[in-house]
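SEVERITY: medium
COMPONENT: batch folding queue
REPORTER: lab tech (J.R.)

DESCRIPTION
The queue accepted two submissions in a row. Attaching both inputs and their returned structure tokens so the on-call engineer can compare them side by side.

ATTACHMENT 1
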Amino acid sequence: MNPFTYSKPTDITAAVNLSGPATRFIAGGTNLLDLMKENVATPEHLIDITGLPLREVSETASGGLMIGALVSNADLAYHPLIEARYPLLSKAVLAGASPQLRNMASTGGNLLQRTRCYYFYDTGVPCNKREPGSGCPAREGLNRIHAILGAS
């Protein structure tokens, strides 16, 4: 894992001001920390957003909804406004994971989660997702760790 700095701002403006190209936001960080351990992600700075007011679903002036990055998937799926206005979103979130995961996983974390492809995590092989144009072992016939073989 590469060295990095860490900050935990107390308001959203400070978090935004701290951000930059080599910065990643972190809350639970399950996926990001795995990527950092494998040197797939090498941020120079982590911004911890767990203390920020981002756990609400609220109405916007234009009639839409704003979903905070820290809203749990369970809270999102069962929120009355989501169920009433966006029932397919509610159903999709409920279909996406076990209740235990939905209770802990955040909407922001799900949106920022990187690919789950085994080769993406293996820095010893090329990967178009890590380095565009480098190749893709799965497409080129290397089928170890695949559950389905020979499908396009």
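ATTACHMENT 2
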Amino acid sequence: MQRVRTSLPYFKEFGWDAEVVTVNESYSPLPTDHLLLQTVPDYIKVHKIKALNRKWTSKLGLGSLALRSLWFFYAQVNRLLKQTRFDLVYFSTTQFPVCVLGAYWKKRFGIPYVIDMQDPWHSEYYQDKPKEQRPPKYWFSYRLNKMLEPIALKHADGLIAVSANYIYNLKTRYPEIKAIPADTITFGAFAPDLAIALKHEHSFEPLLSKNHINIVYVGRGGYDMHKAIRPVLEVFKQLLLQNEDLYGKLKFYFIGTSYAPAGQGKPTILPLAQELGVQQSVVEVTNRISYFHTLATLQQAHALFIAGSDDPDYTASKIYPYLLSKKPLLAVFNEKSSAVGIIKQSAPKASVYTIPANDAATQAGIGALLSAWAQGSFDPVETTPEFEKYSAKQLTLKQVELFAEVLKSKQQVKPI
């Protein structure tokens, strides 16, 4: 949704007329944010479809929005393709099971399709992890993803991904798509969103303490982020032991860490803080918050922290709102993550470290930064001209260039 939303204002400028098919927000258990519609141009046609009621499908263990909406996507897009000549179907979602429809529409209507891999679909990452570190219903989702991914990917005409490794892994796994157009395109920075968030910040629930120096992370949690978070909290613990009055002013927030429905999320960061004995200075809010609530909260923070996964393919799409906020920033990622280079190029004043982040120089750097923050010294992050190439407009241009390449190279498929 996020990539499409920030691309819609620019598709027409680059010669593409887009129509959107999406599930009506009333069928999603996640928080809704109607402010998102303010950035969608009025001329864009948006077709909202139904989904099976989660209240009933959850009794069968099927809460996935993708599975609940699959039939409705099939029916709506069939109608559109019968009525109007479209050049391309573009799947940009993490509800990956709907992508299997691309193979059907290609066979039925002769229309090519592009898949945007914002996360891995089928992955072996959790196979060697203990049960408590695996996502809910992992046994089922692992097998479902393993079955559905090849159906969608083997017939795809183009690939976009936030990580080059995603493309490499998929082309290695499926030789059938080795020659199709593909490009690594991160999510774009969309500056108008900040103005909207600030205009409406009074309508969001305040989440931060007025009596502390607040260091904020907003995004998913998970045990795979412990390697990035642990060294920061370990350094913080040592500082607390040296001067509790000074460093006790710092409070770390981890907000929106679970994808579970509100009230049902399990903390994954607070247990680490408890293990290290710094839980009094760490707040974990498992409930997701809306996108603009996130932006407003980042603006209200004294400083920001981005924790990356230990997965080298992980690229945090959230880095652009962090950089646009121009707040002091501490980031810890796997050294192979593309986020490291993006932040270093775009915001030289940001403090970026890589996992395992336990060497003396890194610990000293983190300690010096936390010490400065505790004493009220905040060095704003300024973006360089290099940051422009990560703007939503420039990355929309990269998308349509790939679309054009797909149309140029596609083999005509005779509809049945």
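NOTES FROM REPORTER
The domain at 2-188+391-409 is CATH 3.40.50.2000 (Rossmann fold).
No errors were logged for either attachment.
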